[in-house]
Amino acid sequence: MRPFESIVAEHGARVLRVCRAVVGPIDADDAWSETFLAALRAYPDLRPDSDVGAWLVTIAHRKAIDVLRGRSRAPLPVGDLPDAQSRIGIPDDDGRELWSAVAALPDRQRLALAYHYLGGMPHAITAELIGGSVESVRRAASDGIAALRMVYRPTHERSTS
Amino acid sequence: MTTILDDLSRVDSDHLDELHTALAAAATRDELLDVAYRTVDSPVGALLLAATQKGIVRVAFEGEDHEAVLDVLSTRLSPRILLAPARLDAAARELDEYFAGRRTSFDLPLDFSLSGGFRLTVLDHLRSIAYGHTESYSEVASAAGSPRAVRAVGSACATNPLPVIVPCHRVLRSDGSLGGYLGGLDAKRALLAMEAAA
């Protein structure tokens, strides 16, 4: 069995991307830590032929759901929806514009997008995690990307204008 | 589409380092960190230091291939291994002092769980060979209670999991020649020269 350190080194960035997209950049650090702490606890019992990436994304999903549930009981700090028109062309150095656009997506679109495009998981794994058919998950992921394109202008397109 | 994903994917490596440090601290707090490790620079090359919750369990020379050593620790002790320098701060400091000629013995908790039987008896005796002194393999065999087990003493030294701290470099052939050393003969020569000069 590989030392756990090499698991963190290989998958740390991927898990952070997933957590950020699902719970937002503020809570992502906690979700990341909870994910790897739970993974470290369970690691010695992981079957040797397991897909470590899928295993971690599954744990991250559960931890992120915990964070989202905790929020729905507490007052929601993210009430600030993006104002698409006025923000276009304004540099988004701290990423606030991007993350509020992601936060405004319906849950299914956000999770489907996060696990496939950022977590590198096949849609079938997302379907196992959030329910529904593989096709509906595929559609949710691409609808999510399309919705982001409506309101968010990538940073690299801004320098030319 | 790709460029939105580029923006979503941007991860700062300093940020990941901070998360890693916090993870190591949380794992220590929850007693999940079975093996902590770090590397330190030394006059005999980079040394890997690894510690369990009991104490220092492994010191490894560069030539032993640190990745391979960690793989062995993962198999023999536990795969719950993280780069976590804090647990090895005292060891790093004492080694620094030793290599600077300011320390002649180590005062560190040691974990001998990688050794057993006669090898452990030999290692135990090695700890009593004082700084700047040497013994022959056959003297060590006698001291360990098996005067004829000279070859076994040689293999106990060659597999010492805690070189430098458990001073197998202080064991020579009866004719005064160096014998072997898992850190390479240059390292053994350097350690003996340093101790003789101090």
Automatic annotation (TrEMBL), chain A:
Q: State the source organism's domain of life.
A: Bacteria
Gene3D superfamilies the record matches:
1.10.1740.10, Winged helix-like DNA-binding domain superfamily/Winged helix DNA-binding domain
Please identify the protein, giving its name as recorded: Sigma-70 family RNA polymerase sigma factor
This protein's UniProt keywords: DNA-binding, Sigma factor, Transcription, Transcription regulation
A single Pfam family it belongs to is Sigma70_r4_2
Tell me what organism the protein belongs to: Terrimesophilobacter mesophilus
- Residues in the signal sequence: none
Task: Give the family per the record.
Answer: Belongs to the sigma-70 factor family. ECF subfamily.
What region holds the RNA polymerase sigma-70 region domain?
Answer: 8-73
From TrEMBL, chain B:
Query: Does the record bear Transferase in its keywords?
Result: yes
Please give an example of a GO cellular component term from this record: cytoplasm
Query: What EC number is given for this enzyme?
Result: 2.1.1.63
Q: Does the keyword Transmembrane helix apply?
A: no
Example of a GO MF term: methylated-DNA-[protein]-cysteine S-methyltransferase activity
Which residue intervals define the domain Methylated-DNA-[protein]-cysteine S-methyltransferase DNA binding in the entry?
118-196
Please state every residue range assigned to the domain named Methylguanine DNA methyltransferase ribonuclease-like: 36-112
Residues annotated as catalytic? 168 (nucleophile)
Record's subcellular location = Cytoplasm
Record SUPFAM superfamilies: Methylated DNA-protein cysteine methyltransferase domain, Methylated DNA-protein cysteine methyltransferase, C-terminal domain
Q: Which Pfam families match?
A: DNA_binding_1 (PF01035), Methyltransf_1N (PF02870)
Entry's family note:
Belongs to the MGMT family.
Q: What else is known?
A: This enzyme catalyzes only one turnover and therefore is not strictly catalytic. According to one definition, an enzyme is a biocatalyst that acts repeatedly and over many reaction cycles.
Q: Could you tell me what this protein does?
A: Involved in the cellular defense against the biological effects of O6-methylguanine (O6-MeG) and O4-methylthymine (O4-MeT) in DNA. Repairs the methylated nucleobase in DNA by stoichiometrically transferring the methyl group to a cysteine residue in the enzyme. This is a suicide reaction: the enzyme is irreversibly inactivated.
Listed name of the protein: Methylated-DNA--protein-cysteine methyltransferase
Name the source organism. Terrimesophilobacter mesophilus
